[in-house]
Amino acid sequence: LEAQFAQSQKMQAVGQLAGGVAHDFNNLLTAIIGFSDLLLLKHKPGDPSFSELMQIKQNANRAAGLTRQLLAFSRRQTLRPQVLELPLIVDDLTVLLKRMIGEKNQLSVEHGRNIWPVRADVVQLEQVIINLVVNARDAMPNGGSITLRTANVERSEAERLTFDGLVANDYVMIEVQDTGTGMSPEILQKIFEPFFTTKELGKGTGLGLSTVYGIIKQTEGFIYPVSQVGVGTTFKIFLPRHVPSEAEIAAKTTAAAAPAR
Ligand code: ADP
After folding, report:
1. Residue ranges of the Histidine kinase domain (predicted)?
2. How large is the ipTM?
């Protein structure tokens, strides 16, 4: 628990710092990109300086992309939790996800029956799934398969899982499995730390999984990675089952009973 508290304190501090720096930095980058555009207009594509100017502009654009990610990480967006059906969220994302992982990777989706609802912010949950799938893709440079699974996990079953801190509750689990490189225990230990990345400069910020961690904590859920070098990685996320209040049930019944027009 103490470690988790330290982790969230650290994330908050990093978030504030990163947000401030990213904001100012982004303004400077906008100026660099703007002035390179002006200079590019004064050169023809064949000119010796043209390709160098293009390099400046392209790299400034990449840097702007990174600062945008930093800003997204630091922004404490107000949560809009609503009652959601996880399988629908996953299904709505599959076209986008398939495009993101490209032709050499396969995506399959397996839903359990009658998955319980959860209460969460849709945009944030989508961000979680996208981040995990992008990481899975990056871990499979030669291609492979990614499986998304949803399942109900009953309280008794959840209690049997020896995961620390799993509070007695019914959970809905979403799993993202890949057949990628896997991670050593040393790396696995650090993956939720802000700015921890093994990706080359310009490719990774090390903010993906710390963002995911933050979102899952706010939703009162848990995330567990299981990984084996050379075999692959599975991220399991547990979100508490949403049990509708009597008022919610009443509202639904009335809506259903209303005559269709
Ligand atoms: P980034 O993707 O920018 O590096 P993340 O926080 O998303 O930042 O991930 C941190 C690190 O965790 C990655 O650089 C990688 O080493 C490791 N990692 C994350 N997901 C996977 C995965 N599915 N397979 C192997 N390694 C992974």
Report:
1. 20-243
2. 0.99
Residue pair 99/234 in contact by the 8 Å Cβ criterion: no
For residue 206, give the ligand 1 atom closest to its CA. 8
Q: How far is the CA of 135 from the centre of ligand 1 (A)?
A: 5
Residue of 107, 135, 187 best suited for mutating to test ligand 1, as the one with most atoms within 8 Å of CB: 135
CA gap 257, 126 in Å, rounded:
32
Residue 173 pairs in a beta bridge with 151, 238
pTM of structure:
0.76
Give the rounded distance of the alpha carbon of 241 from its chain centre. 21
Among the ranges given (49-58, 134-143, 170-179), the one the predictor scored with the smallest mean pLDDT: 49-58
- Ligand 1, atom 18, lies closest to the CA of 135
Beta bridge mates, 153: 171
178 CA: nearest ligand 1 atom: 23
Query: Which are the contacts of 257, defined by CB distance < 8 A and separation ≥ 6?
Result: none
- Tokens standing for 44? 């023809």
Please give the structure tokens belonging to residue 151: 């399942």
By the 10 Å C-beta count (0-12 exposed, 13-18 middle, 19+ buried), 67 is classed as buried
φ/ψ (deg, to 5) at 146: -120, 130
- Alpha carbons 119 and 79: distance in angstroms, whole number: 11
Written as six digits, the tokens of 237 are: 């996320």
Q: Which residues pair with 241 in a beta bridge?
A: 118
Averaged pLDDT for residues 10-28: 74
